[in-house]
Amino acid sequence: MRQAGAYSGLLCGGTSGRTGPHSLPLARIKKIMKGSSDEVKMISGEAPIVFSKACELFIQELARRSWNMTIQGKRRTLHKEDVASAVIATDLFDFLVTLVSSSDSGSSQVATTATVMEME
């Protein structure tokens, strides 16, 4: 019999203690994947799981870097400007720079999560 591998936690909820296996809705992810192109007709069962985990890791990294910006500002409340600063300061997030713009008042604006994730 085949032994569970290192990634078996992805399918059964991992070690985080959450009640469900995923924090992002797999059906919604699959719907977004199908709607991304007319050429996409079928999606394997594993693809949304892997994509969900990748999204979780991305959100975690962005939140961590945004929190570091909050701490540097000697605050304990995360603001959208902290997310914008994290995006601008990190080369890995260059693809998000177009979503971050400077307003007339000089403060940075970040697109809402609904725009970024298109989950709603």
From TrEMBL:
One of its GO terms (cellular component) is nucleus. It is found in: Nucleus. GO terms for molecular function: DNA-binding transcription factor activity, RNA polymerase II-specific; protein heterodimerization activity; RNA polymerase II cis-regulatory region sequence-specific DNA binding. Residues 23-87 form the Transcription factor CBF/NF-Y/archaeal histone domain. It comes from the Eukaryota. The keyword Transcription applies. It holds the Pfam family CBFD_NFYB_HMF. Keywords: DNA-binding, Nucleus, Transcription, Transcription regulation. Stimulates the transcription of various genes by recognizing and binding to a CCAAT motif in promoters. Heterotrimeric transcription factor composed of three components, NF-YA, NF-YB and NF-YC. NF-YB and NF-YC must interact and dimerize for NF-YA association and DNA binding. Belongs to the NFYC/HAP5 subunit family. This is Transcription factor CBF/NF-Y/archaeal histone domain-containing protein.
